[in-house]
Amino acid sequence: MRIFLAPAKNVLRRMVVTTLLFVAPTIFTACGSPGSPIGNPSKQVAPTVDEVPAPSSSGSGSTNTVTTPPVLLFNGTGTDTSVASVESVLSTLKLRYATANSSQLNAMTETKLKAYKLLIVPGGNSTTIGNNLSKATKAMVRATVQNDGLHYLGICAGGFFGSYQYGNGLDLTSGVWFNVWPNNGKGIGMEAVEISFPKSSKLDMYWHDGPETSGWGYIVAKYPDGTAAIAEGAYGKGFAILSGVHPEAPASWRTCCTFTTPLATDLAYAGTLVTAALNGTLLPHY
Q1: Which residues, other chains included, contact 5 with Cβ-Cβ below 8 Å and sequence gap of 6+?
Q2: pLDDT tens sequence across 258-273
């Protein structure tokens, strides 16, 4: 069931050109697994978009029984081993999915993209992701969300990319851009961060230079300083969840820090995010 409620009034934060020139190159950094190479996605375990048949236009009389998977996972230039972590969550949920790299997404049409229910962009480097997708592609993805009801889940770098991102993102946030969460003044890096929820217990989650998602939509989860860690909202006919943390982080990522939350609990929440994004269902929010 789809539930779309109008999010609270966006706080549109505009900037001058001079601020853009000085800030933009430093804001968006690597956002994913520790030490993982950028632009080196995991081994394919699902069909690519090129291997998925085009949507049938023959009507109800078609005998084509092959259907488009509900999920499209982006694994192009700028992503990292977060791709494999998301794949593991999708496998646990028994969700069929296809993958698209940068050139494949650049070649997609709105007709083909709208056959999917959910586009997931995982962690990596949001600037690199945006730089390797054409303006036309970003406009096409945004239009598919707005006009055709495609849903979007952005994790860390994917959260940055889902925002305005200084004109280099999808702008599903209607002009709102995200900055790196300052980690209580400790500076950026990787850490187990205690995340709060409105109707459930706090969870330690892996954070690696992820965004503060304040200023857009509903706040689903908060960082220790009370700022938004995960936000959700409608964009036209579509729906988006943007996360600054990595609930899908595998055990190998957690060696950096001390976690009080069991791995299985965080992974289960990652499944909750995917399911909510897929169905366009609002999660409990502040």
Answers
A1: 234, 282
A2: 999 999 999 999 999 9
Beta strands in the chain (DSSP E): 30-31, 71-74, 97-100, 118-121, 124-125, 151-155, 179-180, 190-195, 203-208, 211-212, 218-222, 228-235, 238-243
* Domain residue ranges in the chain: 17-50+67-279
User: Model confidence over 53-65: pLDDT tens digits?
Assistant: 887 654 444 434 4
- Residue identified by tokens 């069931």 is 1
Query: Length of the chain, please?
Result: 286
Confidence (pTM): 0.86
Fold of 17-50+67-279: Rossmann fold (3.40.50)
Cα 188 versus chain centre, distance: 20
Whether 1 shows a pLDDT value over 70: the answer reads no
Work out whether the CA dihedral 37, 106, 96, 237 comes out positive or negative: positive
